[in-house]
């Protein structure tokens, strides 16, 4: 049976003991309660997305399911304790379905064939190229993917470049991101849509919602204790967009990216990476208003038969068409003109 809730649990003691004010702020900004608030005070959105997520993570002690590490014969883990990341995401989304067991496969370029064999044994819908797709070259072997198995277990396939000190591969953000995808897919467990979700969660929502939700989740879960660290990670991930050196990221451009006439903009190599950074900024707005549960609740609604647009209107009380210009206006104020 699926667990459904969007309620936030809080703990007064925890909130008092871990409260962190936003960097460079004399006082806590007023809450972001609507899209219009996000338009009027765009600089306050990130704080409230972090704060509501932090309260959720730090107010409970949930732990993720059993973890089975499957490590390639030529592979050394960059992150020695990946379960901490899975636990953090469990605490971020404690009321939704999580896998009872997680298989995490780590491999290097030398281990591609080994990794594919292991992955194919666990994941019935493996393409045969899954491991290779995430590890194209010896020194560019750092991709990852995640889903659930037929029985609902989580499965993570993560490429590793031995010796890397890249923070995404050492801090737990990679694992948190991919595990969030398992939670997204898990909303469809036991439904007729499970098979499609297992191989393509982006089929159900705008692509930026899938990847942006996972990006927001990784930052919020791993850096729940520190708004400055959350902000630093956010700046690293969205820095190119914020800098706007080409001056193309106008309000109109952003609106067209959020709701394009053609999904090609989400797959074009020139713009595809924005499903992560712009996606995370959109999900920050959602989270600042509704709390982190909204990032999974929409998938729950869709698994019950709604569309993304119908779920959005149910949760936010206004149509998606009316929301897009407001979201674009809010985000456009964050970039350099």
Throw out a few tags for this protein.
2 domains, globular, alpha/beta, 7% strand, 4 strands, 337 residues, 50% helix
Characterize the structure shown.
By secondary structure, this protein is of the alpha/beta class. It has 2 domains: 28-59 and 205-332, no CATH class; 66-195. The protein is 50% helix and 7% strand. The chain is built from 17 helices and 4 strands. The chain has helices at 12-18, 35-40, 45-58, 83-92, 112-122, 130-133, 167-170, 173-186, 194-199, 207-222, 227-243, 251-258, 264-267, 274-290, 294-303, 308-316, 320-332; strands spanning 66-71, 101-107, 144-148, 154-159. The protein has a 4-stranded mixed beta sheet, sandwiched between helices. Helix 4 links the parallel strand 1 (66-71) and strand 2. The longest helix has 17 residues, at 227-243. The chain is globular, with a radius of gyration of 19 Å. 47% of the residues are buried.
Count of helix runs: 17
Return the string of H and E elements: HHHEHEHHEEHHHHHHHHHHH
Radius of gyration: 19 Å
Order of strands in the sheet with the most strands?
Answer: 1-2-4-3
Largest sheet: 4 strands, mixed
Rough outline: globular
Q: Structural class of the helices, strands and pairings?
A: alpha/beta
Helix content: 40-55%
Oligomer: single chain
Instruction: List low-confidence stretches.
Output: 1-25
What's the average pLDDT? Answer: 93
Kindly report how far apart the N and C termini lie: 50 Å
What is the tally of beta strands? Answer: 4
Q: Give the amount of beta strand, in percent.
A: 5-15%
Q: How many domains, as an integer?
A: 2
């Amino acid at each position: 049976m699926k667990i459904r809730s969007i309620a936030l649990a809080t703990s007064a003691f925890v909130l008092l003991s871990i409260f962190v004010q936003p960097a460079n702020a004399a006082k806590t900004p007023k809450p972001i309660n609507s899209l219009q608030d996000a338009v009027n005070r765009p600089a306050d959105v990130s704080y409230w997305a972090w704060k509501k997520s932090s309260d959720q993570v730090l107010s409970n002690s949930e732990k993720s399911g059993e973890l089975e590490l499957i490590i390639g014969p030529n592979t050394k883990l960059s992150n020695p304790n990946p379960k901490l990341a899975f636990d953090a995401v469990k605490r971020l989304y404690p009321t939704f379905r999580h896998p009872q067991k997680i298989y995490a496969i780590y491999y290097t370029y030398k281990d591609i064939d080994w990794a594919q064999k292991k992955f194919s044994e666990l994941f019935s819908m493996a393409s045969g190229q899954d491991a290779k797709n995430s590890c194209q070259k010896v020194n560019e072997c750092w991709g990852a993917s995640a889903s659930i198995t037929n029985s609902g277990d989580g499965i993570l396939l993560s490429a590793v470049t031995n010796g890397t000190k890249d923070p995404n591969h050492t801090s737990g953000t990679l694992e948190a991101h991919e595990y969030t995808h398992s939670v997204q897919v898990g909303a469809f467990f036991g439904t007729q849509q499970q098979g499609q979700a297992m191989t393509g969660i982006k089929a159900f929502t705008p692509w930026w919602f899938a990847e942006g939700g996972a990006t927001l989740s990784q930052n919020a879960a791993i850096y729940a204790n520190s708004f400055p660290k959350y902000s630093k990670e956010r700046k690293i991930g969205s820095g190119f967009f914020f800098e706007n050196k080409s001056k193309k990221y106008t309000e109109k451009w952003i609106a067209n990216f959020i709701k394009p006439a053609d999904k090609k903009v989400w797959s074009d190599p020139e713009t595809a990476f924005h499903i992560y950074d712009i996606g995370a900024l959109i999900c920050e707005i959602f989270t600042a208003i509704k709390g982190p549960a909204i990032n999974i609740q929409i998938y729950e609604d869709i698994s019950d038969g709604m569309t993304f647009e119908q779920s959005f209107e149910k949760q936010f009380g206004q149509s998606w068409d009316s929301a897009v210009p407001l979201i674009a206006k809010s985000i456009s104020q964050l970039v350099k003109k």
